[in-house]
Specification:
This protein is an alpha+beta fold and about 220 residues long. The protein has six helices and nine strands. The protein has one domain: Histidine kinase-like ATPase, C-terminal domain (Heat Shock Protein 90, 2-Layer Sandwich).
Length: about 220
């Protein structure tokens, strides 16, 4: 067994242990659900963020080894976004932040549910660090693409990131969790294709909530 395989095995064990910690924290949150607790919210957020990073690292390892390919299914998009908003609402509430979603009724998409859930949860976790009070998950069809967007009401992305995205596309990140999350999102988007069209990501500012807007375009 080589070092990358050993590291992947250790990350998997860490992820399982962290899952138990997160479940315990969530149970505490349920017991204190009538009280807004910023410290508990921070603890929940950091634990989930670490878990999301471990999932991302394991997924990147499996993609690199050719062990992970998208399982494309027909997905009820509104239900999908509802479940994601519920998964993140307790942590957000304890941080004084609301998570909401918008989708056309009856909207159907074709994508790997697990991969896209991992990507969006990672993006929401990152958004909780920078938003002021709101995060919105939105779905719509644009130019024959299903567009899944995460908006916040923070200060938005640095202009340098907006300008650089056209030249970086699937470039590997140099440093930082944000770059790792964006690289993972871009990689997963590119894994979804329809004929000659591939998925891609876009970064923008001043969209629905006035802050940052991260969108994933799936053909």
């Amino acid at each position: 067994m080589n070092f990358p395989d050993i590291l992947a095995s250790l990350i998997h064990d860490m992820k399982n242990s962290l899952g138990l910690v997160i479940n315990t924290i969530d149970d505490l949150g349920q017991e204190m659900q009538d009280q807004e607790n910023p410290k508990l919210g921070t603890l929940q957020h950091e634990a989930r963020r670490l878990n999301s990073n471990l999932i991302t690292l394991l997924s990147l390892y499996k993609i690199d080894k050719g062990q992970l390919t998208p399982n494309i299914e027909e997905i009820d998009v509104e239900q999908f976004l509802y479940e994601i908003s519920v998964d993140n609402q307790t942590t957000a509430n304890n941080m004084g932040i609301t998570v909401s979603y918008e989708s056309e009724e009856g909207l159907v998409g074709y994508f790997d549910e697990w991969l896209m859930r991992s990507v969006i949860n990672s993006l929401i976790g990152n958004g909780l660090r920078y938003t002021s009070s709101q995060i919105l998950i939105h779905a719509e069809f644009v130019d024959d693409y299903l567009v899944l967007s995460i908006d916040d009401d923070g200060n938005g992305f640095p202009q340098s990131m907006i300008e650089a995205q056209s030249t970086q596309k699937q470039k590997k990140p140099q440093q930082g969790e944000t770059q790792l999350g964006h690289y993972f999102a871009s990689l997963v988007a590119h894994m979804h294709s329809n004929g000659e069209r591939e998925g891609f990501i876009k970064l923008a500012n001043n969209q629905r909530l006035g802050g940052g807007n991260f969108s994933i375009w799936l053909p």
